[in-house]
Specification:
Helices cover 50% and strands 12% of the residues. By secondary structure, the protein is α/β, with parallel strands linked by helices. The strands form two sheets. The protein has a five-stranded parallel β-sheet, sandwiched between helices. A hairpin with a 2-residue loop joins β7 and β8. α11 packs across α12. The radius of gyration is 23 Å and the shape is globular.
Length: 456
């Protein structure tokens, strides 16, 4: 018997401590096989309780350990007090949609005037841009909060500032050693953070932001003065859970607590959109993280990939049963369409990858590929070849790419280096994934440079 897999990879077995496993099994009364798994994961006996039954109240940090949290809270409070209109500018993926829904539901519960803007993947591209900001400013927004984007949006943020518009960035993508000139940049992955909570996604960070804001408003007696009920933040944990699972961030520490408690809230079926989408997906059992990641999440993502980017967040915040059903049904149909598109492109991408299989990083491009599925294709190719993979959709003189990486190669840093060298127009990401746009004429340069970065 060999240790080879069907993908011709070699299984490497963890070294285990048989004595520790036997002792743990006796002390904890857990199954031997389960204790063996815990030992392989190097979960110490004193941490097993937190691992199996993580509690948010025990793991939630003081929100103010994050840089600029104080500035962000004071700034949004200023606009709330002045009855200014606030814009929530979210990304078009599940993490962006769930983050946007969390903040919107909170503001709505307090009757705070706000609007939502989710950029169109094809027309607007990733993150803030000046043209959209012009529109938002003309709509009389005085504060723009970017969620799951904005860390590298220097020009749009500066444009807002020159027009006397405040901005708060709540993001988790890697920064360079210079930050946009926003009123607050709240990001566990900014260059000057400790990195202790680098595993958080935007939905988790948005929840922490609301924990701070809720406490701040309570201390200001805002709820009493305005005769309004203080929102119960725990009701938003289903949205936090979905963003955490679908952004594929590490399920460790606080993230485990978010997912475990979020699944409980999800099972209560309080969110009409999630309830309806679950029913359409024919989930007739207690929902698991697998259901979220492989059934619910792809449908929510379908809106930003090949449909109307705002559909996902509208599903998550609406209380209109008829409207919610129509959106859920449309998302289901869009996801089926996405699967068909993906199947065709994947076959073509594999043929192209075969030609590059000796390269360290696979860079695949085609003018016929739909940019809405490049991330999925990159993930599939990465899994097949166990190599960092970049898939680029070409549209005339401009191309857009999605990247997925493997352990040991930080894709977010690679994209930042590309931007600093002006090989790409703009982009961003984290260690395992990223997105960018570049001039079509620079694709070959990009391909050579990212392989050079890998070799270093």
């Amino acid at each position: 018997m060999t240790n080879g897999s069907v993908l011709e990879k070699e299984w490497i077995f963890h070294k285990i401590d048989e004595k520790q496993i036997q002792s743990l099994s006796l002390i904890s009364e857990l199954d031997y096989i389960f204790c063996k798994i815990l030992n392989c994961k190097k979960i110490a006996s004193e941490n097993i309780k937190d691992y199996l039954s993580p509690k948010i109240k025990e793991m939630l940090p003081n929100p103010y350990i994050f840089k600029d949290m104080n500035q962000g809270i004071e700034n949004i409070y200023k606009h709330i007090e002045q009855n200014n209109k606030i814009c929530i500018y979210g990304d078009y993926d599940v993490d962006g949609a769930s983050s946007t829904a969390i903040l919107s539901k909170y503001l709505k519960s307090l009757n705070i005037s706000h609007e939502i803007y989710i950029p169109d993947r094809i027309k607007d591209g990733y993150g803030p841009n000046k043209k959209v900001f012009e529109k938002l400013i003309s709509n009389n927004n005085k504060l723009i909060i970017t969620l799951d984007c904005g860390t590298l949006a220097f020009d749009p943020i500066l444009f807002a500032k020159t027009n006397n518009i405040d901005t708060i960035i709540i993001d988790h993508h890697k920064s360079i050693e210079i930050l946009p000139n926003a009123n607050a940049v709240i990001n566990p992955n900014r260059f000057d953070e400790s990195g202790e909570y680098s595993y958080l996604c935007a939905a988790g960070l948005s929840f922490i932001f609301l924990v701070a804001l809720n406490k701040f408003l309570r201390e200001k007696k805002y709820f009493h003065i305005n005769k309004t009920i203080e929102p119960n933040l725990l009701n938003y944990l289903d949205l936090v859970m979905i963003g955490t699972v679908c952004d594929v961030v590490p399920l460790v520490d606080l993230n485990r607590a978010f997912v475990k408690q979020g699944l409980k809230v999800f099972s209560e079926r309080q969110n009409l959109g999630l309830k309806t989408l679950s029913d359409i997906s024919e989930i007739d059992h207690k929902c698991t993280s697998k259901d979220i990641g492989f059934t619910i999440g792809p449908k929510i993502n379908a809106a930003g990939r090949i449909g109307e980017s705002s559909l996902a967040v509208n599903l998550l915040i609406s209380d209109d049963p008829e409207y919610v059903y129509s959106v859920a049904k449309k998302l289901h149909e869009l996801n089926l369409k996405r699967k068909n598109i993906e199947k065709i492109i994947l076959e073509e991408a594999i043929l192209e990858a075969e030609k590059q299989k000796n390269n360290s990083v696979l860079v695949l491009s085609n003018k016929e590929w739909h940019e809405g599925v490049t991330g999925i294709i990159a993930s599939r190719i990465k899994d097949l070849y166990n190599k960092p993979t970049v898939v680029i959709s070409v549209n005339g003189d401009l191309a857009k790419g999605s990247a997925r990486s493997i352990n040991g190669f930080d894709m977010g840093i690679a994209i930042i280096q590309m931007q600093q060298k002006k090989i790409i127009v703009k982009g961003g990401g984290h260690s395992m994934a990223g997105g960018f746009s570049l001039k079509t004429e620079n694709i070959v340069i990009f391909k050579n440079e990212i392989n050079n970065i890998y070799s270093k």
